[in-house]
Write a structure and sequence with these properties.
Blueprint lengths: L1 E6 L4 E8 L2 E9 L3 H16 L9 E5 L5 H18 L2 E5 L1 H12 L6 E6 L4 E10 L2 E4 L4 E4 L10 E3 L11 E2 L6 H10 L22
Parallel strand pairs: 1-4, 4-5, 6-10, 10-11
Antiparallel strand pairs: 1-2, 2-3, 6-7, 7-8, 7-9
Helix pairs in contact: 1-2, 3-4
Amino acid sequence: MYILATDTSTDYASVALLEKNRILFELNESGKHAHNKRLFDMISELVGQCGISIRDIDLFAIGAGPGSFTGLRVGVSAIKGIAIGLNKKIIPVSSIDAVALNAFSDFPDEKEINVILEGRQKDFFHAKYTPEGKDVKKISEIIVRPYEDYSYINGVTVGNVPVELIGSEYYSGGYNPKAGCIGRLAYSRKDEGGYDYNFEPEYYKEFKIR
């Protein structure tokens, strides 16, 4: 089973190709225009590097947020379009779940980890997780907190909020959702994949023009 996974919920465009839950190749690019100018090229490069055709993909997985409104719209629309055109299965995966999976691989002895992702309006998304086999389990709802609320978060915390804004010794920054983790979660949840292309990104906030 080949899985093509993408995430565009942050300033990073991340694309990965997996065979079952094994990552064959992953590309990550950052920049304001990485999503709308490079995403399709990255997908083409990825399948070319692995010597397969886009038609060989069995399941498309997309990071569904929370995150950037524009990035999510671009990524979800692009993957929906490819999957519909090829009549392939698709599965949305929470981007914050992907960060949690990555975090537990880095902190294997932890039983609970907080994940915080930049909200772009002087706030962040927060949820707490526990490991569950090769998957992760959310043990709190995703909520939006202002930067100053970091003091209410206890324990090991990871995310992409700038380190200087989170004054906790237990915080590790630089964690963006990676397509490889999206793909691994998609494989664990593959029975949830199907031909329902009507899902929407998980914004969790109202769009504001800045």
